[in-house]
Write a structure and sequence with these properties.
Oligomer: homodimer
CATH architecture of one domain in chain A: 3-Layer(aba) Sandwich
Shape of chain A: globular
Distance between the termini of chain A: 64 Å
Structural class of chain A: alpha/beta
Strand content of chain A: 25-35%
Helix content of chain A: 25-40%
CATH topology of one domain in chain A: Rossmann fold
């Protein structure tokens, strides 16, 4: 018995076909159908791909939003034995061309609004043979539209038997410098990752859930939620193209979403939007935020004002992506809401199957005192052991372990707390300053929506921190002296940033994280 | 990364060592310690076994009750790469000697009260080299007592790396006729079975649970609950030697048990005991009954009188044992308690990873109309594909599928409902009569505790049903005409048993199921 994604699809098709897949379309209307239809169309799509000449091991790329068609591709391509390469739509043309050439994609599925990118990039992708537009209207370029293509397939297509170590998915992680690095997922890896997500002590995804993945399907498997939803037959609500915070909240309210997952930066936007226009989000049993550390202040706001617990996890494209999860152990749970939040701001413990160690500069485990930071290393059945055909692998992988580049401390219970990305730590006078700690405390200051802290070159101290701060009210003002005094309540004097810059918004990267590279350039300008 | 049981133990040791293992001892006192101690002693035990000369692949047998020492063996032996053979203490001496010789056990761990069995059997087990008595007092026979043996090991022992397809467990299933048949479990099989148990839509075993496995550890891995408890670090309460229904209820009340698992026959005893002496069992979120079909009447009594939902599952020694689980889907759940019970009496749908088919006599899938019975076939990563060195394998296995010998119908939702064991169906005038259906209806009759129906030879009809009925009150009487009229409300006239025999108790097999072989012999006597 091979551990392959097909097993999940066929079980749901046979035993749990009754729940809905709801997909927000470009015009804001909702498309809805049942898993029975989803499974039939997924078979038909795999058949159409096989008839097109797609072979096991071939790379099939997507350039698209979170939609039902994208979700059909999520299973049709792997169940055919081919490899689904989800291209990050927010990369530059140059990087998209690079990764499609590096992956040697042969087919591309693209959402209509992303066709301009394809027009610019496709001519330089040497391997590309077919382009299919995810629409039901005649396609302005490429082979044809998705529905016409689907019609060429057989809805009773039998998926082939596939060996569990076969590659089935591919995603590129944006490097700080240089070209993106490719990560390949196997059937076995995604099968086990999917099971892990459905464990009661991890995300507890269930047939009773209505899952709303805001995290893009082109970003680290949408954190595995489409796979998990199919595996248990959970209702899934896909937010479609260009979802705003308002769109997401409207969907949660209308569809009674129980589980939502998004980048921390989106969590900040959701809260701000709720303040502008209240919605009923009482159906949510959990809001999972990731991509960076969730500020405690945001967590308390969601908890106290809306009764919604925030789930914190840690992972990366290299980890499929889930590696650790906050676990509120029974004794802490029974100690009450205040104690739970202290645990929920931490990145938690490895999910079953993953091994974790936090190592200092000498390669020795850090003490469990929550004071000594070290780099997080993980390994497990779904954690990458190399980058795809990339010499940079040797910098990040050794003996089956992935060196994450993330810096954390470990508490007495073994749970980790992210302190910083290795490259984001501020080094002042030979000591480390955690940008994440400063950001969390600033975000808790009255009148502040969010904050980012980066290093500024300094002749005397080597580096000094600079804070960029966004006010809660759009027209709000913030007094640097008040911010400074707020931080002085908790941190040593030499931790207090030299400069506080009030900005209307923080720059974000293609995957929705705060773009610290841009901020560092601004900070360097301030230093001059 | 290999899928081995060690992964679970080491994660709990490092991140979730705080919960308790509670073990009822022979004198009724409770022994308690934490997972930190459990893991340390398990390493020490593995080390002692290695120093004794136990090699990977060697068989280590146990003859014991559900105790903390037995639970240490549950992980020490597999994590050393050896094979844990849990011997059913209720087998005859002849069968125990047969299976120990067939397994070629080299070491035997035995509980003190079972030493008489060992004295009789051990001399005929040719492979046996060591006997260790699970006690802390000097052992009257064998090598030594468990605690002295443990002291020879190193508590910092590092478990070896083991290939996931290595065998790690072994259990014999009692055949109706002939010698017991051996089933071997692999590391990979038990790893995946453990994860399945912890899925929210299966048993949802969690660190927040207090698990009370009444099902013996010598019977089908105690349904996988010791493995699941270790994997998530759940509190576990072990009922020790000779637990009575009163002992079990006292433990649930005192330890605030959340999840209890037992044979259906024990469930009947628990209910009868609760009527005699009430206890607070409100902490229970679920009572899992298995081994045979749970009567709807018993389920309603637990639900209505105690608010405890009964979980129904189906499996067998050959299936590690879990193959299917009742799943109350969201729409049914929201329809209310009455609708949920209609689903909960069914054996449900395959757990993720297992494939299932119900085939008629011609090998064709039965229609999903809940009317046409067929034999249940399953396959999956933890389902056996053969009996250990046994020519009878070819009668039960083909193409990776196990033919269970259990007869079920399938509903429109695909869920199965057990109708009978193939050998327990009553064949009357060329038509099938389900003994399970008759038993369920009799158990719902006022004044009835439980019932068993078997076939009696009949000259005219080939076979006719006979019912053995136990009154709810020990001194109660039951009128056959009333029982007959009760059944006539629901069944065709030719289904009604020809005889109703009132008995004080039903005979039970070594694994606690109703012993239908003995009843058939009694029924044959009645026919003469």
């Amino acid at each position: 018995m091979q551990l392959t994604l097909k097993t999940f699809l066929e079980r749901t098709e046979s035993f749990l076909p009754q729940n809905e897949i709801v997909s927000r379309q470009a015009d804001g209307q909702l498309f809805r159908y049942h898993y029975a239809d989803y499974c039939r169309r997924t078979r038909q799509l795999a058949s159409a791909l096989a008839r097109l000449g797609v072979k096991p091991g071939d790379r099939v790329a997507t350039l698209g939003w979170n939609t039902y068609r994208h979700m059909e591709l999520y299973f049709a391509v792997p169940c055919l034995g081919a490899i689904l390469h989800t291209v990050n739509i927010r990369l530059t043309d140059e990087h998209i061309a690079y990764i499609m050439n590096h992956a040697e994609d042969v087919v591309l599925f693209v959402d209509p609004d992303l066709l301009p990118t394809v027009e610019r990039v496709a001519p330089s992708v040497r391997s590309l043979r077919h382009i299919i537009v995810m629409d039901d209207r005649p396609a302005p370029l490429g082979d044809c539209d998705y529905e016409s293509f689907l019609a060429t397939g057989d809805p009773d297509f039998a998926f082939p038997e596939i060996e569990e170590n076969s590659p089935c998915g591919m995603c590129f992680t944006s490097a700080t410098t240089g070209d993106p690095k490719g990560v390949v997922y196997t059937q076995r890896g995604l099968y086990l990752h999917t099971l892990a997500l459905c464990l009661r002590d991890v995300l507890a995804i269930s047939e009773h859930d209505t899952v709303l993945p805001v995290v893009p399907m082109f970003h680290a498997n949408s954190w595995g939620l489409p796979h998990a939803a199919v595996a248990v037959g959970a209702t899934i609500v896909l937010p479609g193209p260009h979802p705003t915070a308002a769109d997401i909240l409207d969907l949660i309210e209308a569809e009674r979403g129980t589980f939502c997952a998004a980048a921390v930066t989106i969590g900040v936007e959701l809260y701000a939007q709720l303040k502008k226009k209240p919605r009923d989000i009482s159906s949510l049993r959990g809001l999972m935020l990731g991509g960076s550390a969730t500020p405690e202040a945001l967590m308390k706001r969601f908890h106290n004002e809306y009764g919604v617990p925030i789930l914190t996890a840690w992972g990366a494209t290299e980890a499929a992506p889930l590696a650790t999860i906050t676990h509120v152990r029974r004794s802490v749970f029974e100690a009450g809401p205040e104690e739970r939040i202290k645990v929920r701001i931490r990145q938690g413990i490895p999910v079953p199957g993953v091994e974790l160690k936090v190592l200092d500069d000498c390669g020795k485990p850090v003490p469990r005192d929550d004071r000594h930071p070290g780099e997080v290393h993980v390994r497990g059945p779904w954690i990458a052991t190399e980058y795809y055909r990339d010499k940079r692998s040797r910098d990040s992988f050794a003996d089956g372990w992935w060196r994450s580049g993330d810096i954390a401390t470990q508490g007495s219970d073994g749970s980790i707390r992210l302190v910083d990305r290795a490259k984001d730590l501020v080094k002042s006078g030979g000591e480390w300053i955690s940008s994440v700690d400063l950001e969390n405390e600033l975000a808790a200051c009255p009148g502040v929506l969010e904050a980012a802290v980066v290093a500024m070159p300094d002749a005397r101290w080597q580096e000094r921190p600079v804070a960029f701060v966004v006010p809660l009210q759009e027209s709000g003002e913030l007094d640097p002296d008040i911010l400074s005094a707020w931080l002085a309540r908790r941190f040593a004097k030499w931790w207090i940033p030299d400069r506080f810059v009030v900005v209307a918004a923080l720059p974000k990267t293609g995957v929705g994280k705060v773009d610290k590279r841009t901020l560092r350039e601004r900070a360097a300008g301030l230093a001059l």
